Amino acid sequence: MLKNWLKIAFINYQKNWLSTIINILGLSVGLCVFLLIFIHWQDEKSYEQWIPNKENIYFVENGNASFGIMSSSSYPEIFVSKEKFSEIEDCLIYNNWGKQKLSVGSNSAYVSGSASVDSFFRFFPFEKVAGNFQNALSDNGKIALSDKTAKLLFGDDYLNAVGKSVKSDSNGKDYVVTAIYKLEESNTVFKPDFIYRNPYMEQSKDQWTSYSYNGFFKLKPGTDIKALENKLTKQMQEQDEISAKKWGYTIDKKNPTVVYLTSISKMKLDAKSEGVEKGDKKSIMILLSLSALILLLSGINLINLKTAQASQRAKEVGVRKVIGSTKLKLVLQFLLETFMICLVAYIVAFAMVELLLPSYNKFLGKDIKLNNASLFIYTGLLLIAFSLISGLIPALYLSNFKPINTLKGNFSRSKSGVWLRNFILTLQLVISSFFIICSLIIHTQVKYMMNKDLGFKGDQAIQINFKKGNWENNFNVNKYRRLKIELSKIPGVTDVTGSVNSLGSGTANASIVKLSTDTTKTVQTMLGGIDENFLKFYKVKFLSGRDLDWKKASDTINGAVINETLAGKLGYNPKTALDKEFFTGWDGKKKYKILGVVKDINYAGVEQSVMPIVYFNYDRNWIKNNMQNVQIKISENDINGTLERIKEFWSTKAEPGYPYDYNFVDKQFAKTFEKFQKQQTLFTTLNIVVLVIALLGLFALSSLLIEQKLKDVAIKKTLGADEKTIVWDLTKRFLLICVIAVFISIPFGYYAMNEWLKDFAYRIDMPIWPYVLSLFLLLILTFLVVSFKAYRATKINLVKYLKYE
Predict the structure, then answer these.
(1) pLDDT (tens digit, 9 = 90+) per residue, 141-167?
(2) How far apart are CA 765 and CA 211, in angstroms?
(3) 172 in the Ramachandran plot: left (φ > 0), alpha (ψ -120 to 50) or beta?
(4) What is the pTM (predicted TM-score) of this model?
(5) Positive or negative CA dihedral for 167, 168, 174, 176?
(6) 468 and 480 in contact (C-beta within 8 Å)?
(7) What's the rounded Cα separation, in Å, for the pair 567 and 789?
(8) Cβ proximity of 257 and 68 under 8 Å
(9) Nearest 5°: phi and psi at 594?
(10) 33: which residues sit within 8 A by CB, 6+ positions away?
(11) Of 291, 287, 438, 471, which is closest to residue 364 (Cα–Cα)?
(12) Cβ(509)–Cβ(598) below 8 Å
């Protein structure tokens, strides 16, 4: 029986070779797209699965009205809570401090380091290579190294490095090596090449509202997470009240501080803030849903083509039923035929995934490999489920033919057969229209963002971040001043400036501002410590007032320029804000006077609202040592030559021994668009895939249906119908279905894009033209595909189709 079924299947595959190839190709492409996005999702979900007791470790996040939800916590919030709440078994603070240079004699390593506390290895038990994890970070003079870093510093004798000294060039201090560990090879955001004790904890012990650390709790099994969140929230709100009384400001009681606990095993995707190297779950889920639609579209193609072939199989089914075949056997036979097509498509899809994975990894900036056994189990189950779902409809449809009807004549003309094909074709075109609409709107929004006025001119300006620096003894500010003088002497350099905030990297160092005339009204603001020429350097437009004048002592001591957003938050317009005075949270009781109001500058990308900011003389207490970069404007006459001269100076005099790299400010800001440009690229690619699959299916379906009407065409030509009339008669039904499909897709497209656009502080108004263009584009494509086959049908040999009438 099985052998007979296989023979029948291959005969039908050969007879309908075009539709078979289109089915396999469509399914392969659909499966390939789905698999690529599915393995990306699985890869993101696999982070931190290696950690023992991960179900009891939670990441601490804080949310308030001023900053939204933050990934950082305060020192006392973490350590006091451990002592206060019995549910907390252990606690940890951890900060990734980026790359730093370590040296031992003539050997050095420029590697990524982290600052933590002694509980680090109790939370993350890396494999121990040498030394002892207990008390490994118990004081500020100790350091733990990864085996990779130890090899770079100590060579082949790295196993004996414990007890030896390592120097940090960032602060000039010597550290004693206490332990050597092996980095985890599984997916994790915790991959420090070295770890030392956070040296700034002592000064943070009483600062409840200084959110500076990534905090983690290890909870006792069975802890009620919601109840603990409520306790932590109540504690932070009480501390906010104490701080408000101490500093004389009011709290927004409608939006108080809230503490959230997120399981570390879900932190990568489900952190409520930006987390620790958080993945983009929303984009992944959107793409996964869209890839599932593409898979559905491939299944629709299969269903549509199988049902369209009903007329060819109707008599076969009728004969088999007459000789005693049951409905169950017929269903199983047709399911087997579908499964064989799906299996071939599945194998081809995996070959395509293997071929495309390197490029996909490069696009994502990841290193995903096809070595996860669960992936094959999941996709195998998907194959079976997909075969059943896509095969069951045509199987039941074909097996329900009544022998008395099928043996009489052509079933394909029945109303039920036509209705089913029309419904499935409409669904196919609805999906295609949805993708076209969404792709056009995404393209429009990304283009709008890239063309938006950013408030500054960063042409021919580069930024170099300091590799070597620290917060002690005014190191950073003195270094900046020296480098500014030296860089200004280089031929081709036209100007040099600096600021504590980097364009394209967002703003930092938040504080509060309150008017001297109304001490109850406070505004959260960013600190914009700048050099005297910063605003001129970037051609920032003044809406009122003037720039800071470094020759006037009053300007450098308590003068300030604010942006228009801060002026509005304080209750002023650009003109009425001039000469008003305010107190700040960073300079005690000193009054600052507003000398000018400038147009808003986007620091972190146009999808986010511009933050209020105060621009003032950078030479202020701790602010001065946040000058961690220098910004250089170069002449357009010899850009490459100037860049080479800057590189030589930097590598030999500024920071010898450190890697040299720079970013054009415009390009650095352009990186804030990368996420959305990638979304645009992926959506455009998916849109092309959808159209190709849909049009291939439409071509195969129209070919089958038009072939069934060749006798009608022959009769019409015999009666004198011209080619245009025949082509129109054969295509108009498809065009009508296309129009209906586009109108059905419009509300779905509008809802999806309106939800997507909600993420942007600056967004386009919902345009109408993508919906209209989608209609015309699909009509044109449908007409071209169907009319091509219809035109060829007008060239048939009349005798061949009329001789049996």
Answers:
(1) 999 999 999 999 999 889 999 999 999
(2) 37
(3) left
(4) 0.76
(5) negative
(6) no
(7) 66
(8) no
(9) -80, 115
(10) 291, 294, 295, 686, 689
(11) 287
(12) no
φ, ψ dihedrals at 114, nearest 5° = -135, 150
Q: What are 651's two structure tokens?
A: 């590598």
Sign of CA dihedral 699, 705, 708, 714: negative
Chain centroid to Cα 290, Å, comes to 15
Instruction: Count the residues in the chain.
Output: 805
Q: pLDDT by residue (tens digit) across 269-317?
A: 999 988 888 888 888 888 888 888 888 877 777 776 666 665 556 566 6
Q: How many helices (H) and strands (E) does the chain have?
A: 24, 22
Q: How confident is the model at residue 805 (pLDDT cuts 50, 70, 90)?
A: very low
For residue 598, the SS3 value is strand
Alpha helices in 219-280 (DSSP H): 225-247, 267-270
Range of weakest confidence among 107-111, 260-264, 282-286, 334-338? 334-338
* Pick from 52, 315, 75: nearest CA to 204: 75
Cβ contact 561:535 at 8 Å: yes
Give me the residue label for tokens 């909870």: 219
Indicate the residue type of 380.
Answer: G
Question: In the beta sheet, which residues pair with residue 634?
Answer: 493
Q: What is the mean pLDDT of the chain?
A: 82
d(CA 664, CA 307): 58
Q: Measured between alpha carbons, how far is 170 from 651 in angstroms, rounded to an integer? A: 16
Name the least confident of 39-43, 225-229, 448-452, 748-752: 448-452
Tokens of 218: 């290890």
